[in-house]
Amino acid sequence: MLTAEERLEQLERVFQQLEDESEELPIVVEGLRDVAALKRLGITKNVIAINRGISIFSFAEQISRKWKGAIILTDWDRRGGQLARMLKEAFSANGVSANDHYRTQLVILSKKEIKDIESLPKFIENLRIHERPQIRRELWTNRRR
Predict the structure, then answer these.
(1) Domain count of the fold of the chain
(2) pLDDT of residue 120
(3) What φ, ψ does residue 88 adopt, rounded to 5°?
(4) Between the CA atoms of 99, 103, 106 and 111, what dihedral angle is there, to the nearest 10 degrees?
(5) What is the pLDDT averaged over residues 16-42?
(6) Tens of pLDDT along 91-123?
(7) Among residues 109, 79, 84, which one has the least CA distance to residue 98?
(8) Helix 32-40 / helix 120-144 crossing angle, nearest 10 deg
(9) Average pLDDT of the chain?
(10) CATH number of the domain encompassing residue 17
(11) What digits encode the pLDDT tens for the residues 36-79?
(12) How many other CB atoms sit within 10 Å of the CB of residue 35?
């Protein structure tokens, strides 16, 4: 089982990788709150909300005109899982490579404590608060030696 500090480190690594990959690929999220949440986490490039009043297939067609791949980052509730599957199929039909690896990592690292992208900033904040007392204890213990 990972400590809060280890989870935080891994989550921050995932966010950095997402930011790096967003230079080349769009990150597809469900709505504008998800876009805002990722911005708060430092992921600012090519984050696109799917809920724009068009069909999933039309959305995938639009993506295929500009990109050869996309990162699917839907919520990990039942609806988000269904949407991720439909996006993968629509992207595939349009020749777009779909990556849902980061979504899987977030599911594992959040340990079912949260179920959506928009909760990530608060979740990270809570992990940081939990981590600080541990670091202080370690510093205090090392000073006393």
Answers:
(1) 1
(2) 96
(3) -60, -45
(4) -130
(5) 96
(6) 999 999 999 999 999 999 998 899 999 999 999
(7) 84
(8) 20
(9) 89
(10) 3.40.1360.10
(11) 999 999 999 999 999 778 999 999 999 999 999 999 999 999 99
(12) 18
Alpha helices per DSSP H over the chain? 4-21, 32-40, 56-66, 78-93, 101-110, 120-144
Structure tokens at 50: 């799917």
Given pLDDT bands bounded at 50, 70 and 90, which one contains residue 132?
low
Q: Is 66 exposed, middle or buried (0-12, 13-18, 19+ CB in 10 A)?
A: exposed
| Average pLDDT, integer, range 3-21 | 92
Residue type, 15: F
**Contact yes or no for 19/44 (Cβ under 8 A):** yes
Assign 103 to helix, strand or coil: helix
Do residues 134 and 4 touch, judged by C-beta distance below 8 A? yes
Measured CA to CA, the distance from residue 63 to residue 60 in angstroms comes to 5
- Which of helix, strand or coil describes residue 70? strand
Q: Are 22 and 47 in contact (CB under 8 A)?
A: yes
* Range(s) of the domain holding residue 76: 4-144
| pTM (two decimals) | 0.86
